[in-house]
Amino acid sequence: MRRNQRKNHAPENKLRWGKLPNNALTRALRDFIDSMGARGLSFLTLRGRLHACRRFILWADERGLEDPREITLPILERYQSYLYHFRKPNGEPLSFSSQAAELSPLRAFFKWLTRQHIILYNPASELQLPKINRNLARYVLSIENVEKILSQPDTQTLLGLRDRAILEVFYSSGIRRAELRRLSIYDVDTKRGTLLVRNGKGAKDRIVPLGERACAWVDKYLRDVRAQFVTGRDEGVLFLTFHGDSFTDYAIGDTVKECIEKANVPVKGACHLFRHACATHMLDNGADTRFIQAMLGHASLESTQIYTQVALNKLKAVHAATHPARAKSSDAVKPAPIDPHLLAQRQQILDALAAERDEDDKTPDDEPPSSALFRVPYHPRPGRRGPRGPRKKKDAHADSDELV
Questions:
Q1: Prediction pTM value
Q2: 20 to 30 Å CA-CA from 24: which of 58, 129, 148, 325?
């Protein structure tokens, strides 16, 4: 195929179904995906639900299960046990978050089947998902490591200029890999220093700031490189491959990972490392957590809390300067005056601790009464067998209608 006939933009809304058995479960899955697409769910959500349900259908087909009405809660629990004991090619098990990601679409699938009256009851309604622990980031790039990685691309070449611009955008904005891949040339405003992220996670748009250095590298890429990569019809994708195609997620990851390996930085990961580094370094320099939440596109602060570990150095310094059990020496660090903003945050922490203390100090009398207290106790009527024993015999001298 001629190069100028290649497509610049990969098909975004094409789902890969793969080989599936021709049975009632597969037909129900196709109707389910069409229904979810009509409701406006994002392509990534549809793809995730399709892949998870597809794996279950293949597993069920190996065991002779072809109809949704044949699926019961014990069968779903057997599949959950199968995921728990599954081992990847490297011998490692699936993480609990991966297991939950495989089971959660099944709950949505069977819930939809119940609403459509295809099955009489939802067998996944009582399926308990694995508990997911929010772990801190294992690897956090320091400022020195980031600068070392950023200097790896050869900016004297076209590909090096493009790679340097990609790395700068990652580190300056903290956007996700898929969000960078979908960027358009009209989404970047280097004069105002802003970046428009369209259809981010949760199908939400947001505007994030872009630093001056990143804007300079993006301008240089747009001016000197991008036009030479365009082949055929230009669809406005910001970062292009050498053949004029838009990047895939794996291609961007390989590009970033190659720069990390050249820098000899002993970390695992690629694009998401710069997202962690962006949030970490801004928090270290005094950025508010809620600002980081808006910049990263998190729906709640719980997702942002994993980045607060980067304030550990400052926490250690404050601990060494203020804790009563610190070493008493003449060269001890004197505590700096506290900023009013920090005082407000300190008061919030104290209020949260007080609430936790009140929760821990609750007595049984403070708890709401159990619903069992509102049940009427069972008292059998006279003359019936019950918890109080057999019916008593009549007294010989009493009236025949009376019981003792």
A1: 0.62
A2: 129
